Every structure is written in C-alpha cells, then in structure tokens.
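Hi! If you just cloned this repository, the fastest way to understand the data is to look at a raw example. We've pasted two of them here, unedited. The first protein comes first, obviously.
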Amino acid sequence: MKNMKNLTLIRHAETHPQQILESDKDRALTQRGLHQIENIAKQLKEKKYLPDYLVCSSATRAIQTAQFLCEKLEINPKLINLNPVLYSGDIEDILKSFSSLNLSHHACIIGHNPILSSLAHRLCPTTKSIILPTAGVISLGFDAKTWDDLLIKQGKLLFYIEPQV
C-alpha cells in the first residue's frame, strides 16, 4: 500500500459570470456552486475519501471551493497550498510541481478546465471521454513510490463524480 499514490482532480464549482472591470481571477462562487460542493463532499465521504494534501489554484473560485470542501469534509483548511501554476500554467508545469507532494499519499488538486481534464487524459487514457463539469471530480490511483513517477507512469481511474444539483 505504501507504493500507492492517489491523485484527485476537482474543478472549481460554479461561478458568477465575469463582470466588466473584474479580473477573471477574482470571480466568486454562486449559491449553486456552494450546493455543488456540498453534493460532491457527500459523495467523497461515501467513498471514504479524505485528502492529506490539497493544492489549489490562486483564483478566488478555486480557493472558495477548497475552503468549503475542507469544511464539509471536516479536514483542516491548513492542508490547502496555493499554487499559481494551476491558474496560469500548463500540464508540464503542473507535473513538475508534483515533487512538492512527496509526503502525501492522497493529494487533491483544485483548479480549472481545460487544464484539469487534459491532465487527467495524460495521466490516465481511460478518462479521455470525461470533460470535467464545474465541481466535477476525477480520482486516479498510481502504483508509484514518488509523485515524480507520474511523469512516466499511467494511472487507473478510481472514480468519477459529477455533482447532482
């Protein structure tokens, strides 16, 4: 079991449309988005999934998603680590940042599309038909000693969750 790594990708929940003079990065969650998070948290609890490390985009909507998810899963929000690469980077940048996860076995990345769906497709070809909806979840398992192994290993799909709101 020690050589298993679990990576869960969560797209931020629904947001308000971008307003004139508002930065895309500052967009906040809608009430429906908060309900989406409640729904996926319930499904994650049913699967007995609890991350031991969360990496989150620096965008407001992703941070709100991470904080509300921590509250609903009853885990310490101090597990949230902001990584600007998740907002503005590409798959290669994200993969290179995985070495920071090495103390973790169950990491969770909260970010945006299309990058999260593309990352899932790269790490697990069986996810190619999945395009993450808002608050969608893809969880992947890897037979790997370190997170750097994900640069060369393929994962298997453990579960996919679509919020039912």
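Ok, and the second one:
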Amino acid sequence: MWMSPISRTQFVSRTFRMTDEEATGKWLVPAELGDPDEVWERICVAAACGQLPGVKISSPRLDEILGHHLICVYCERSDKETASSVLKTIRGLGVTGHLKYKSCKATVDGRDEYLWSSEELEAVNSAGMAASPA
C-alpha cells in the first residue's frame, strides 16, 4: 500500500533486537489528496538531496482508505534528539500541523503506539531554548 521509497543514502529500516528508541522510525505527515500545497514534492526533493534519510508516500489504494495521502519521513533512530532534528527539517520545508512519530519496531510488532508528537517535542525544544543563557 506504499509507493517506492526515496533516499539518497539507500535508507533501510532497522528493528531486529532493538528497543523502540534504537530502531528506525518515521514521522507521519498527512497531505491533502492531490497535494495542492506540494508537501510531497518538497519532502521528496529534500530526501533526494540528502536532507532527510528516506521518505515514502501512500499508494492511491491507501489514500482512498485514509481520505488523504500519508507521507512517512524516516529517521535513523527513534531517540528524542534524532526525531527532533528531523522534525525541525520537516518544519523548515513548510509542513505545519500535528504530526505523530512511530518507531519501525512498533510497526513490525503490530503496535499502534506513537513515541512522540510534534507538539511534545516542539514544547521540549522551546522550553530548552528559553532556559538557555543568551
């Protein structure tokens, strides 16, 4: 139910004998059908240029079920720092709204659990910046 992944570095999902935070993972980015805001194009170009480890988009069959496109933006690890860094890149591409992060291990295990939300990590990053000396 997914189109072929795009990655400059030949990204490969890793989950074997790993915790959720050690495994690869992905930000789930919804995009309107037809992608009028060209979200997929910007994300795809970023992956092709090496700014993002890997990306893929839902197939038309899955789009029909979901009622929108779903873009997976992958991370090499699912720890807070890596997920935050990739989220910052996604935001820099103009992606807005609520995003969820899921480890590839949770997907392989059939668990519908999310490690992070964009609001959670952005609040932590904002609090950290506010606490830093000028």
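That's it. A detail worth noticing about the second one: Helices lie at 39-48, 60-66, 80-92, 104-108, 118-131.
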